[in-house]
């Protein structure tokens, strides 16, 4: 898109001020050049962003106009309707219209209606690329597209007293397009709907009925897909959100919000302004936008008295009361200083803050405050969504860790239970051994009491018992060593399970990476299949075109053969005519000879026998000369003397 002369003029002023500032500071030429290049680069980036925003806003309105022409909801529109739509768009966008361009663009497409994807290249090349910012009225484009789409889609109930007037519905449609997401079909998320309704309620000085709004948002269609413009208008026409509010107040609030958001009006109101020449004070209606401060005679804004351009060189300063005026402030530009007076201190503070905001937006290369706010709200929603997803992932990870911990605790309980069972078995064996030892000791005492006389034999038995006791003690030590080895094995198994868990996490990461690579491979495969299908279609079209040309060539050859045959027949006829002509010429020469013989004069010696016997010819004679045949009349008859 090309920039308007007015925007180029303000760019020149900004660049001139920029150069003058650096010359006063006395910096080197190299630093000035680097700063200038940086400024030009940021300026171009800001204009590219502004052009993209303008194209995006235009496409939203044009999308409604295109879908309104799609009566059968097939996604395609006839070429005749697209011609009318393109002509009207060129008219409202103030660009020349080429009526032949659409036919030439779709000359090779004979399939009938055109889809939105097929119309987009023509729209970008012949219409949107020629649009100049500032040379047309965006509201006229919106009115054209609203007129097309409202006839088809906007059908309020006839008996409903809460129906919005057509102008209010159009402004709400424009607000919806401004706040909707840059995805088609266009929808608006519930947060943006709530933001818009709060702005309207703030303009009406009422509280938003959140209960009715939540009831409407809780519907399944709204939760899944968001608000469409028609469901939004249906909600506004229901009157539940504006219950008990006068229709005129609602219209004024809609107009105020429309001018603020869509019209980029940062602030409006009456201020006293001091003249530049006569130095008298007059009350004017001021309208502040990000790049300009305009003032009018009245709030109807019909008679513009002047415009004050805003750039990074402008600044606002508070002035003391004088000349019978209070709450004064001034706006200083490179060339002039404008003195103004507000009604009270609050208004002065609001106006100075708003003008500083406009200067900041212009210095940052931003053309709209609410576009910047919309982007910030979108980033906040995305951050909330990312935090929510991260929180869900963290909860899932904690659940997995909790489940893993519970599983390990269960395994540990099983190990403890096994250890308790082993301890119980050891205690049982120890009791059994003690019982056996007691029984053996009792038996020994009985034997000692019964056989004191056989002490020698008893001593031998005691030695055997001591050996048995030694073996038992050795067995006990072996069991204790076995218990220690079992505990070491238990610790090793726990460590092995921990290592296995670490390996399992690593394996999960590898599987995730492999899945991402597989997705990328599938995406490449789909692109390759699409390219193959496209190539096959192009081959089929080329083959069909070659067949058509072959048939045309065969038809031309057949016609050429017919022409050659006709020419041959004509040549034969010419040869036969020439032969007949030569034969006729020969006959004429023969008759001329005979005639000359008959016309020879008769001498006075009498009549020749031939003359006497041959009658005098009374008809015309033929005479051949140079291949041409003429009829000659006899001048006289020869008579016999």
Automatic annotation (TrEMBL):
Coiled coil among the record's keywords? yes
Q: Which ranges form a coiled coil? A: 373-573
The cross-references to SUPFAM superfamilies, in alphabetical order and at most eight, read: EF-hand, PH domain-like
Gene Ontology cellular component list: cytoplasm; nucleus
Question: The PH domain covers which part of the protein?
Answer: 264-360
Arranged from A to Z, the UniProt key words for this protein are: Coiled coil
Nucleotide-binding as UniProt keyword: no
Gene3D superfamilies, A to Z: Pleckstrin-homology domain (PH domain)/Phosphotyrosine-binding domain (PTB) (2.30.29.30)
Put simply, this protein is called PH domain-containing protein
């Amino acid at each position: 898109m090309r920039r308007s002369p007015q925007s180029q003029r303000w760019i020149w002023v900004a660049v001139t001020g920029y150069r003058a500032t650096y010359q006063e500071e006395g910096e080197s030429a190299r630093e000035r050049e680097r700063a200038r290049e940086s400024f030009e680069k940021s300026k171009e980036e800001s204009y590219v962003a502004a052009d993209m925003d303008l194209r995006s806003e235009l496409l939203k309105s044009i999308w409604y106009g295109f879908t309104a022409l799609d009566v059968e909801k097939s996604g395609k529109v006839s070429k005749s309707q697209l011609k009318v739509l393109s002509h009207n768009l060129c008219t409202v966008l103030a660009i020349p219209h080429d009526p032949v361009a659409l036919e030439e663009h779709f000359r090779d497409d004979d399939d009938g209606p055109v889809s939105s994807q097929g119309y987009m290249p023509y729209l970008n090349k012949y219409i949107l690329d020629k649009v100049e910012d500032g040379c047309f009225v965006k509201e006229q484009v919106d009115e054209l597209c609203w007129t097309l789409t409202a006839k088809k889609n906007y059908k309020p109930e006839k008996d409903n007293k809460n129906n919005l007037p057509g102008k209010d519905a159009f402004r709400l449609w424009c607000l919806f397009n401004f706040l909707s997401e840059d995805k088609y079909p266009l929808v608006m998320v519930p947060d943006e709907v709530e933001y818009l309704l709060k702005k309207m309620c703030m303009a009406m000085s009422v509280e938003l009925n959140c209960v009715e709004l939540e009831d409407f948002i809780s519907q399944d269609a709204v939760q899944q897909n968001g608000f469409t413009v028609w469901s939004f208008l249906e909600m506004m026409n229901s009157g539940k959100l504006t219950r008990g509010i006068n229709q005129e107040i609602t219209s004024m609030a809609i107009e105020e919000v429309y001018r603020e958001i869509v019209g980029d009006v940062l602030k409006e109101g009456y201020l006293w302004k001091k003249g530049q020449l006569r130095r008298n004070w007059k009350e004017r209606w001021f309208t502040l936008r990000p790049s300009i401060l305009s003032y009018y005679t009245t709030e109807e804004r019909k008679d513009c008295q002047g415009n004050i351009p805003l750039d990074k060189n402008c600044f606002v300063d508070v002035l003391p009361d004088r000349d019978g005026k209070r709450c004064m402030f001034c706006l200083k530009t490179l060339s002039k200083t404008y003195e103004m007076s507000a009604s009270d201190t609050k208004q002065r503070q609001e106006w100075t803050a708003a003008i500083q905001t406009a200067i900041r937006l212009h210095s940052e290369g931003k053309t709209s405050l609410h576009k910047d706010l919309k982007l910030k709200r979108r980033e906040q929603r995305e951050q909330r969504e990312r935090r929510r997803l991260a929180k869900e992932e963290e909860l899932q990870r904690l659940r997995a860790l909790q489940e893993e911990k519970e599983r390990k605790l269960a395994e540990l309980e099983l190990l403890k239970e096994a250890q308790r069972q082993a301890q119980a078995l050891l205690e049982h064996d120890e009791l059994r051994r003690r019982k056996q030892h007691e029984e053996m000791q009792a038996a020994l005492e009985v034997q000692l009491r019964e056989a004191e006389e056989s002490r020698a034999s008893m001593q031998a038995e005691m030695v055997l018992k001591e050996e048995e006791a030694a073996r038992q003690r050795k067995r006990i030590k072996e069991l204790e060593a076995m218990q220690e080895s079992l505990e070491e094995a238990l610790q090793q198994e726990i460590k092995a399970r921990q290592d296995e868990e670490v390996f399992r996490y690593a394996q999960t990461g590898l599987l995730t990476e492999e899945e991402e690579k597989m997705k990328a491979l599938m995406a490449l495969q789909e692109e390759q299949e699409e390219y193959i299908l496209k190539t096959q279609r192009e081959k089929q079209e080329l083959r069909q075109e070659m067949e058509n040309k072959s048939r045309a060539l065969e038809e031309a050859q057949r016609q050429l053969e017919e022409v050659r045959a006709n020419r041959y027949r004509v040549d034969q006829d010419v040869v036969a005519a020439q032969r007949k002509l030569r034969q006729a010429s020969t006959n004429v020469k023969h008759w001329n000879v005979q005639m000359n013989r008959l016309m020879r004069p008769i001498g006075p010696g009498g009549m020749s026998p031939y003359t006497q016997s041959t009658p005098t010819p009374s008809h015309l004679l033929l005479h051949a000369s140079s291949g041409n045949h003429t009829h000659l009349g006899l001048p006289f008859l020869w008579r016999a003397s």
